[in-house]
Structure formats: structure tokens, C-alpha cells
Design a protein that fits this description.
Pfam family, one: PDH_C
Number of helices: 13
Protein name: Prephenate dehydrogenase
Number of strands: 11
Pathway: Amino-acid biosynthesis; L-tyrosine biosynthesis; (4-hydroxyphenyl)pyruvate from prephenate (NAD(+) route): step 1/1
Helix content: 40-55%
Structural class: alpha/beta
GO molecular function: NAD+ binding; prephenate dehydrogenase (NAD+) activity; prephenate dehydrogenase (NADP+) activity
CATH topology of the largest domain: Rossmann fold
Number of domains: 3
Oligomer: single chain
CATH class of the largest domain: Alpha Beta
Bound molecules: nicotinamide-adenine-dinucleotide, prephenic acid
Shape: globular
CATH architecture of the largest domain: 3-Layer(aba) Sandwich
Strand content: 15-25%
Order of helices and strands: EHEHEHEHEEHEHHHHHHEHEEHE
Distance between the termini: 44 Å
EC number: 1.3.1.12
Strand order of the largest sheet: 2-1-3-4
Length: 364
């Protein structure tokens, strides 16, 4: 992988957990020298063994960039200490909340010329270095939250970090950032927790029916409660307003349900339609507009290289497949490959594959 210029080296990642170790892996993969430090030294060692950098101490005078990837509560203290310990290094952090840590640093009178906060909008419900992924940030948004005291070279160093991790840079004021993540990250996490929490009271024989729907809605609720308690607490003021708006939606749902029970399904249909409209507003890949995928299922004979032939046929036709899943028929010696393609090209794909001799089932 080619090195992108201007990430000041060596880089020191403080907090070698899921995000820190992923930053280390991405930078190491891009050819940069990375050192790792963690309050739990075993985390730094595990991250190093996974290719995130070196767990050996670094000469403080040489450090070019410090990436602080610790939980939100200790974050400002760790940033302040890093500015003292590494006198020529630029410092950033990847914390999920941006206003409170900045306020804490400003209140402590820290000189912030060498610090600017940032936040990669990529993560996982898993914690610790074992969840590290060098491609975590690939084509994901990474928010840079500038403040008036940040020196231009500091901003440039963090821009270079984002580029080296192959993410897409977005600039936002810290307050604006916290308002946005309250809506697109923190509130969704709380709502997932509401649904998942209610599952603790569902009998096991009912849970046995769980399909993909409930898994999709609850996955993020599996995140580390110790981390999320800190994220939510540090953005609690903004979230209070979001919860009030949600309560209003909830009340509308109650009324719509009562009306539906009385044979008047109009407002329930409108409520559901609004939900669907919301899903369509979420940007698609590469930050582009939402794209509606259409699914088709191809029967794959249990024969040598059947999958290879299918992908050759798809590739020869110049078609782009967005996602695939494979299921095996329990009774016949065939498998079923589900292909997600752009809705508008589905008829073309069906026609081409049928012509090439494949048995294609469509949902219609
Ligand atoms: N989890 C996500 O999806 C996600 C995504 C983007 C940003 N973030 C942010 O990234 C940061 C790290 O989150 P994570 O998911 O990697 O958590 P994690 O629990 O996987 O890792 C945190 C690491 O920090 C270490 N640590 C804690 N206090 C420390 C201290 N004072 N000094 C040095 N090391 C310390 C822990 O031992 C742990 O290894 C948080 O601020 C979080 O808000 C998380
Ligand atoms: O994918 C997940 O598991 C996440 O929750 C990642 C997620 C998000 O809400 O998108 C969570 C918190 C972070 O601050 C950034 C990213």
C-alpha cells in the first residue's frame, strides 16, 4: 500500500482497544511507524501481535503524532498529558463526543495549538484489540472538529491521518458534531437498547423464532455498556431534546395503534411510511445517495467451479454485485446464491443469467 505523505512519524496510539488498534493496523498497513500504549499493557501487546504497531516504548522527543483512543471520560486528561509528554507531537483523539473534552481542556488552560479532536464514524459493538480491523475506516466518514486555537500544521497532520486510514474527511464544529451524532448514533444506540432490553423478558421458546429483523435492530445494543455510559453521559444535554422528540413519535404511534384497532389504519400507515422514508435518507456507499437494492436468487449446482462460472458470467456482463449470501438446500444437492444488485439493473441481470443457462428465481 502506498504511503500518503505528511503523517508525522512515529505515531503513538494511546488506548490500544478496538478503535486504537484499528488505527494502528491501518497506519502500519499504509507503511507508517506506529507505537502502542495502553493502561492495560496486555492490550498493547495483543494489538502489536495483530499488526497494529510496536508495544515497545518510544522516545518522547521523536513522536510526530499522538492518537488518543481511550474512553470519553479520561480522554481530556490523556490529551493534556500527551501534550506535556511529547513536546513536538501533534495530538488528536477519536472520541465519540467532541464538545465536553474540548471544554475540559480549555477550562484547564491547556495550550491547544498542537491539538485538534476528530471522530471516525466507524466502529463495532465489539471492544478490545482483538476486534481490530485495518479496513475499519475504509471509505467511512471521519469528522475533524477544528477549534480556533489549533495550528494549521496540527490540522494538516490529522487530515493526513484520515487520508492514510482511507476515510472521508468531513469538517464540523464540535457542537454541530455532537448534535449530529446524538441523532445518527447515540439515539439509535439507546433505542436498540430499549428493544434489546425487552428481550430479557421474552421466554426462550419465543426467542427461538428470532430472525434477521430483531438481530438488525439490536446489534449495536451489544456494545460495551461501560463505554456507552460515558458517551451518553457526555452528550446527555443534547440527547434530552432528542428523547423528547422521540416521545412525541411514540405518542403518535400509540394513537395510530388505537385507531387501527378501531378499523382506521390511515395514521398507522402514514407512521410506517415515515419510517421507510427515514431509511431512504441514509446516504449510500461512498457518501452518495441511498440506493435501493433488489435481490435475485440463483440456483448453484453442486458441481466443481459452479460459483466461479457464475461470477465469470456476471463479470463478463460488466455487472456490479453489491452483496451475496449462500444457502444450501437441505434435500437437493444445490445451493442458492442471493445477489443484491441495483434495482434498475435487475431485469438485465436476470435476462443475462437465464440466457447463460442459470436457473434464476426473482422475488416477483
Ligand atoms: N466503539 C466504537 O464503535 C467507536 C467508534 C468510534 C470512536 N469510538 C471512540 O473511540 C474510543 C475508544 O473506544 P473503543 O471502542 O476502542 O474502546 P475499547 O474499550 O475497545 O478500547 C479502549 C482502550 O483504552 C484503554 N484505556 C482506558 N483508559 C485509558 C487510559 N487512561 N490511558 C491509556 N489507555 C486507556 C483501555 O484499556 C482499552 O484498551 C472512545 O473514546 C470511543 O468513544 C468508539
Ligand atoms: O457499528 C457500530 O457498531 C457502531 O455503533 C459504530 C458507531 C456508530 O454509531 O455508527 C458507534 C459509535 C461511534 O462513535 C462511531 C460509530
Amino acid at each position: 500500500m502506498a504511503r500518503s505523505a505528511a503523517v508525522p512519524e512515529p505515531v503513538l496510539v494511546i488506548g490500544a482497544g478496538m478503535v486504537g488498534a484499528s488505527v494502528g493496523c491501518a497506519l502500519t498497513e499504509a507503511g507508517f511507524t506506529v507505537h502502542l500504549e495502553d493502561a492495560a499493557p496486555a492490550h498493547a501487546r495483543v494489538a502489536a501481535s495483530l499488526g497494529a504497531g510496536s508495544a515497545e516504548p518510544v522516545d518522547p522527543a521523536t513522536v510526530g503524532l499522538v492518537v488518543v483512543a481511550v474512553p470519553p471520560r479520561p480522554l481530556a486528561g490523556v490529551v493534556a498529558a500527551a501534550l506535556r509528554r511529547f513536546p513536538t507531537a501533534r495530538v488528536t483523539d477519536v472520541g465519540s463526543v467532541k464538545s465536553r473534552p474540548l471544554q475540559e481542556l480549555q477550562a484547564a488552560g491547556v495550550d491547544l495549538a498542537r491539538y485538534v479532536g476528530s471522530h471516525p464514524m466507524a466502529g463495532s459493538h465489539r471492544a478490545g484489540p482483538v476486534a481490530a480491523d485495518p479496513f475499519l475506516f475504509l471509505d467511512r466518514t471521519w469528522v475533524l472538529c477544528e477549534h480556533p486555537d489549533a495550528a494549521p500544521e496540527t490540522v494538516r497532520a490529522v487530515e493526513a491521518l484520515v487520508r492514510a486510514c482511507r476515510a472521508r474527511l468531513v469538517r464540523m464544529d464540535p457542537h454541530e458534531h455532537d448534535a449530529a451524532v446524538a441523532r445518527v448514533s447515540h439515539l439509535p444506540h439507546l433505542v436498540a437498547g430499549l428493544v434489546a432490553g425487552s428481550l430479557t423478558e421474552v421466554p426462550l421458546e419465543q426467542l427461538a423464532l428470532a430472525g434477521q429483523g430483531v438481530r438488525d435492530v439490536t446489534r449495536i445494543a451489544g456494545g460495551d455498556p461501560r463505554l456507552w455510559e460515558q458517551i451518553i453521559t457526555m452528550n446527555a444535554d443534547v440527547l434530552a431534546g432528542e428523547l423528547a422528540a422521540l416521545q412525541h413519535r411514540f405518542d403518535r404511534l400509540r394513537t395510530a395503534l388505537d385507531e387501527a384497532g378501531d378499523g382506521e389504519a390511515g395514521s398507522l400507515a402514514a407512521w410506517l411510511e415515515e419510517g421507510r422514508a427515514g431509511t431512504r435518507r441514509i446516504p449510500g456507499k461512498h457518501g452518495g445517495a441511498h440506493v435501493e437494492w433488489a435481490r435475485l436468487v440463483v440456483e448453484i449446482p453442486d458441481a466443481p467451479n459452479a460459483l466461479g462460472r457464475l461470477f465469470t458470467d456476471i463479470g463478463d456482463a460488466g455487472l456490479n454485485v453489491e452483496d451475496i449470501t449462500i444457502e444450501h438446500d437441505p434435500t437437493r444437492r444445490v445451493g442458492y446464491l442471493s445477489l443484491d444488485v441495483e434495482a434498475e439493473v435487475r431485469p438485465t441481470v436476470v435476462a443475462l443469467l437465464t440466457e447463460a443457462g442459470w436457473t434464476v428465481e426473482t422475488a416477483d
